[in-house]
């Protein structure tokens, strides 16, 4: 398929007399798509029931007649003040019990039925008016569910919704008390109406109580998105998209994605490096103006899975952002590199955020493709270069991945509720494993936890899965593919209790985790032959054969046929060694990554210096491709 470029535009921020020129310059730059409307509720419905669509009609016409395809966003991430005045209790409530105020965005609680009704109204109006519009080629629901920590809300609406959700799940308070182990500390509830939300408890709340609240909260995001997709589908055949964010795990993206046609995400590599990545100072210094060399790739692969093969970048960083602790400018070349990396991972479209830098409000320090004075910003020339390269490039298809990683949101919530060690973070563990697979030069698929078929890969890794779905148990039983489970995989019941016999309880793999230890940074457990476990160590008991041992001789990793269990959090050296048992690694130098499509190998150099590898020199912050 031909890849395309786009941008995010806010006609309501600019005088009418620049729209035509903006649209013409977008087309001249080689852009195909423009996303609009996702925050414009106060201009679409300034007061209740008083709609003004004339300006949006006009903007869509200007953009469409210039030759652009429009993605129209529903504006539900930014309810205007009158909506809040009408529903004063619609705000999300934080863990301390304080409502989160008006004055930015995402100020709503997913559980609030009155707010949902307002959303139904505005989405219906938009869908009726624009659903069949010739220039509207895709829709975006809301904006970045979960961004700014907005999934979990301890509101009265959430409490009532949670009690109802629990009553449906457990049917009787006795069943809930048994499932949660509420005999402990006399926590038994006589009635569902007695169950409160798991915040403000004296010491830690009961873990299954927390886990169920996270499941409930995720379900509310799914319901909220679905109420929009159900309306939109009645009026349009255009694809429905949501723009997810980086490293947000508080809701099940696979479940939201099931109601959509394409998964898109918002890629801010330099912001993420500074804001949401565990890495030492040297790493952050080295990649300061490029971003981490695996973080974007991980999300491309994750969201390709969430979108069942269809993935976009709805927002691509073009220059310094405003929201991270530190906001350096990208090295020349990165705005091009990020786009080609995304295409190589299967992105259909990359849209730069945003067209012109706003001179006002919260994001006035956030770069765009144009400066606030409308002059070209540095990324525009790189965007034009990508457009020319796309035109000259034959279509690229995706290649079969050699390795797969199973990624599960419920497990992320389980270990948030019960980390058992300050450094045990599920995303961090999965990302560490993903980095190892990428260092080896592999194409990686990220699979949902209910995956039914593991065949065709050279290696599958499933770290940290709290419990296994029936589908996955069956797939594990049926496959000949080498699969590495652990640490912590299948060691809990669905209610976050310890099973008997102690897990993992995987057919054919005779091993149990009988004790676990967490250890602080700068401490470790040495392994025979070099390498170490960090953060997390498990004591294994059973008949599976040790393939790796602790320095003192006890088993660290065991195997039965094609199934393996890894009883600790491996450092890089150990992980590389383990992966090399199954595939021939490329041993890529720091910062150099490859990704194969069906016809090309893309060489992606995140380093601030040129890299020569296998006779090829890839320039600093550069990407190039060779035929396969
Ligand atoms: C995203 C968001 C955009 C804009 C951008 C700034 O999180 O969707 O609206 O705020 O970040 O980097």
Structure in a nutshell:
The chain is 32% helix and 19% strand. It has 628 residues and is of the alpha/beta class.
Describe the protein in words:
It is built from 18 helices and 24 strands. The chain is an alpha/beta fold and 628 residues long. The strands form 5 sheets. Strands 1-2-3-4-5-6-7-8 form an 8-stranded parallel barrel, surrounded by 5 helices. A 7-stranded mixed sheet has the order 10-9-11-12-18-17-16. Strands 13, 14, 15 and 19 form a 4-stranded antiparallel sheet that branches. The structure holds beta-D-galactopyranose. The site of beta-D-galactopyranose has 11 residues, from loops.
Rg measurement, Å: 25 Å
CATH topology of the largest domain: TIM Barrel
**Which ions and ligands are bound to the chains?**
beta-D-galactopyranose
What is the rounded distance between the termini?
Answer: 18 Å
Helix/strand/pairing category: alpha/beta
> Total helix count?
18
Give the key terms:
628 residues; alpha/beta; TIM Barrel; Rossmann fold; 8-stranded parallel β-barrel; 7-stranded mixed beta sheet; 18 helices; 19% strand; binds beta-D-galactopyranose
Which helices and strands, and how do they pair?
Elements: E1 4-8, H1 19-28, E2 33-36, H2 41-44, H3 54-65, E3 69-73, H4 81-86, H5 113-130, E4 136-140, H6 156-170, H7 173-180, H8 207-235, E5 240-244, H9 253-257, E6 262-267, H10 269-275, H11 281-286, H12 295-306, E7 311-316, H13 334-344, E8 347-352, H14 378-392, E9 403-406, H15 409-417, H16 426-439, E10 444-447, E11 459-462, H17 470-478, E12 483-485, E13 512-518, E14 525-526, E15 532-541, E16 545-549, E17 555-560, E18 563-566, E19 568-570, H18 572-580, E20 592-596, E21 600-605, E22 611-613, E23 616-618, E24 622-627
Parallel strand pairs: 1-2, 1-8, 2-3, 3-4, 4-5, 5-6, 6-7, 7-8, 9-10, 9-11, 11-12, 12-18
Antiparallel strand pairs: 13-15, 14-15, 15-19, 16-17, 17-18, 20-21, 21-24, 22-23
Helix pairs in contact: 5-8, 6-8, 8-15, 13-14, 16-18
Bound molecules: beta-D-galactopyranose.
């Amino acid at each position: 398929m031909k890849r395309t470029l786009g941008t995010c535009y806010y006609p309501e921020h600019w005088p009418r007399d620049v729209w035509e020129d903006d649209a013409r310059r977008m087309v001249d730059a080689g852009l195909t798509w423009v996303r609009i409307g996702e925050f414009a509720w106060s201009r679409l419905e300034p007061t209740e029931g008083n709609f003004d669509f004339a300006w949006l009609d006009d903007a869509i016409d200007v953009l469409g007649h210039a030759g652009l395809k429009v993605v129209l966003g529903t504006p539900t991430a930014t309810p205007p003040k009158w909506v809040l005045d009408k529903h004063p209790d619609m705000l999300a409530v934080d863990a301390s019990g304080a409502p989160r105020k008006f004055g930015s965005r995402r100020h709503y609680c997913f559980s609030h039925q009155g707010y949902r009704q307002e959303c139904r109204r505005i989405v219906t109006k938009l869908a009726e008016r624009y659903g069949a519009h010739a220039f509207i080629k895709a829709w975006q629901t809301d904006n970045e569910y979960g961004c700014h920590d907005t999934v979990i809300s301890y509101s009265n609406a959430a409490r009532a919704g949670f009690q109802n959700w629990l009553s449906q799940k457990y049917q009787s308070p006795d069943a809930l008390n048994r499932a949660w182990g509420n005999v402990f500390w006399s926590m038994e509830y006589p009635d569902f109406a007695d169950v409160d939300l798991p915040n403000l408890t004296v010491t830690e709340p009961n873990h299954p109580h927390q886990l169920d609240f996270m499941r409930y909260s995720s379900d509310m995001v799914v319901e909220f998105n679905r109420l929009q997709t159900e309306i939109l589908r009645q009026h349009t055949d255009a694809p429905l998209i949501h723009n997810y964010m980086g490293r947000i795990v508080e809701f099940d993206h696979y479940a939201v994605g099931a109601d959509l046609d394409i998964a898109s995400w918002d890629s801010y590599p330099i912001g993420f490096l500074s804001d949401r990545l565990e890495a030492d100072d040297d790493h952050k210094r080295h990649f300061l103006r490029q971003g981490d060399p695996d973080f974007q790739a991980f999300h491309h692969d994750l969201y390709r899975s969430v979108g069942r093969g269809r993935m976009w970048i709805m927002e691509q960083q073009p220059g310094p952002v405003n929201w991270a602790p530190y906001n350096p400018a990208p090295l020349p070349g990165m705005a091009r590199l990020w786009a080609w990396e995304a295409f190589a991972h299967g992105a259909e479209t990359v849209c730069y955020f945003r067209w012109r830098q706003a001179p006002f409000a919260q994001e006035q320090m956030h770069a765009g493709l144009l400066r606030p004075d409308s002059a070209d910003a540095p990324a525009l020339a790189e965007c034009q270069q990508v457009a020319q390269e796309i035109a000259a490039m034959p279509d690229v298809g995706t290649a079969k991945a050699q390795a797969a990683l199973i990624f599960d949101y419920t497990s992320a919530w389980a270990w948030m509720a019960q980390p058992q060690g300050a450094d045990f973070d599920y995303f961090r563990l999965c990302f560490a494993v993903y980095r190892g697979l990428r260092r080896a030069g592999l194409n990686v698929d990220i699979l949902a936890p209910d995956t039914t078929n593991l065949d065709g890969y050279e290696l599958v890794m499933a770290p940290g899965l709290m419990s296994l779905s029936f589908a996955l148990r069956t797939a594990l039983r049926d496959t000949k593919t080498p699969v590495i489970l652990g640490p912590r995989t299948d060691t809990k019941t669905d209610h976050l209790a310890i099973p008997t016999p102690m897990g993992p309880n995987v057919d054919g793999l005779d091993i149990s985790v009988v004790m676990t230890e967490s250890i602080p940074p700068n401490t470790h457990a040495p392994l025979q032959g070099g390498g170490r476990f960090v953060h997390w160590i498990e004591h294994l008991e059973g008949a599976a054969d040790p393939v790796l041992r602790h320095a003192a001789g006890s088993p660290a990793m065991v195997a039965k046929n094609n199934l393996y269990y890894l009883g600790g959090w491996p450092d890089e050296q150990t992980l590389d060694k383990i992966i090399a048992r199954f595939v021939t690694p490329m041993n890529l130098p720091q910062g150099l990554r490859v990704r194969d499509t069906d016809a090309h190998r893309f060489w992606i150099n995140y380093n601030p210096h040129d890299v020569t590898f296998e006779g090829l020199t890839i320039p600093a912050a550069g990407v190039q491709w060779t035929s396969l």
